[in-house]
Amino acid sequence: MPQLADQTPGDAIVVTGIGMVTPLGGSRETGWQALVSGKRACRQLTPDELEERGWPDGSRGEWPGALAVFSPDERGNGRVVGMALQAAGEAVADAAWNPAGDTLAAERTGCVIGTSKGDFFAASRQFQDLTPSGTPDLAAADWLACWPHAAATAVAQQFDARGPLLCPVAACATGLVSLIRGADLIRNGACDVVIAGSSDAALHPALQACYRRMGVLARGDQPVESRCRPFDRDRSGFIAGEGAAILVLERRSHAEARGARIDAEWLGACMAADPAGITQLDPGADGLTYCIRSVLRQAGTTAESVDYVGLHGTATVPNDRSETRAIRQALGPVADSVRCSSLKGSIGHLLGAAGSVETAATVLAMRDSVAPPTVNLDTADPECDLDYTPGNAATGEIRTALKLSLGFGGHVAAVLLGQP
């Protein structure tokens, strides 16, 4: 059996690789530069795109979305698995880490990749693919793709990661929860390296109909690219998107021993539950406030150290107000001077992939000393009174950044990151 590698007392957890697939680009830098420049990917899906995604003829109408810049590969992987593999490939290459062929390295490399649901497109095909005799003609790949763990399994196999294999499911907080669980594996001594993140593709008619019935989708009375308006006075909900992001998390002493570049340090994390409802937060924001204060305590720092907050910012009326209130309660007077932003006006709500993509963007914001903008924010809700970086990116050193994620059903998560 492999032996636990020597650990330096107080060994930190660091980020050494990043991969992204988003509606603004099929690679990390392409998507990131588009985010910084304020580009918007939300648009009306074409009839061909709706047909490809299984919309019945009579129900197509106007359905907006933010499609990832991605083409399924020749191996027949669906979008959820394929995007995860593409993002993981970029992240592992960026980290210059390859456990394949080294048994000790492979068994000390974990894989934690979540999605908020299985591949709905593969599931639909299970009901549609019938032989003339009426018996199912099931493809093994489609059957396996229906399960949420499909992306995690594919990535672990691709990179010979033989350590713990996990697939967290935490609704819209899945991406950040996956990163937190990956960091836990390193902190607990189970792994030296973890390939962690999430992937999601939710532009399926059944899912979109559910979100519309839940009242969380943006109204159709504005141009599609302007409908998702986080923290704006006229906001009405989000537009769904798809994407993936994978981070390589690593024990600092392990990264330094192999000469890896370090992108950020993992300073603290917290998960909690908000029992207020299925789609909205407690107006008092006690759970999220607790999470923010907890990560500051874990890091041994204070509110004054926070330079930037990557917000969840769904553009739903109650949740934007609750998130604002939590930041004010946790940071106090410092909240007035902290840059914040939500990316959902640019790339839509990536649901299970939102937390990982937005965390990747937060690390890149620290790297480049620039806060990406909150697009479509023209006139702020009077109850949303932070500096949301409206319209245009803002330059300035970001030494410490806070990332927040919220999920339907009460999932709450926060992470504090620092410059290496």
Automatic annotation (TrEMBL):
<dbReference type="InterPro" id="IPR000794">
    <property type="entry name" value="Beta-ketoacyl_synthase"/>
</dbReference>
<dbReference type="Pfam" id="PF00109">
    <property type="entry name" value="ketoacyl-synt"/>
</dbReference>
<dbReference type="InterPro" id="IPR014031">
    <property type="entry name" value="Ketoacyl_synth_C"/>
</dbReference>
<keyword id="KW-0012">Acyltransferase</keyword>
<dbReference type="InterPro" id="IPR020841">
    <property type="entry name" value="PKS_Beta-ketoAc_synthase_dom"/>
</dbReference>
<keyword id="KW-0808">Transferase</keyword>
<dbReference type="GO" id="GO:0006633">
    <property type="term" value="P:fatty acid biosynthetic process"/>
</dbReference>
<protein>
    <submittedName>
        <fullName>3-oxoacyl-[acyl-carrier-protein] synthase 2</fullName>
        <ecNumber>2.3.1.179</ecNumber>
    </submittedName>
</protein>
<comment type="similarity">
    <text>Belongs to the thiolase-like superfamily. Beta-ketoacyl-ACP synthases family.</text>
</comment>
<feature type="domain" description="Ketosynthase family 3 (KS3)">
    <location>
        <begin position="10"/>
        <end position="419"/>
    </location>
</feature>
<dbReference type="InterPro" id="IPR014030">
    <property type="entry name" value="Ketoacyl_synth_N"/>
</dbReference>
<dbReference type="Pfam" id="PF02801">
    <property type="entry name" value="Ketoacyl-synt_C"/>
</dbReference>
<dbReference type="InterPro" id="IPR018201">
    <property type="entry name" value="Ketoacyl_synth_AS"/>
</dbReference>
<dbReference type="GO" id="GO:0004315">
    <property type="term" value="F:3-oxoacyl-[acyl-carrier-protein] synthase activity"/>
</dbReference>
<dbReference type="InterPro" id="IPR016039">
    <property type="entry name" value="Thiolase-like"/>
</dbReference>
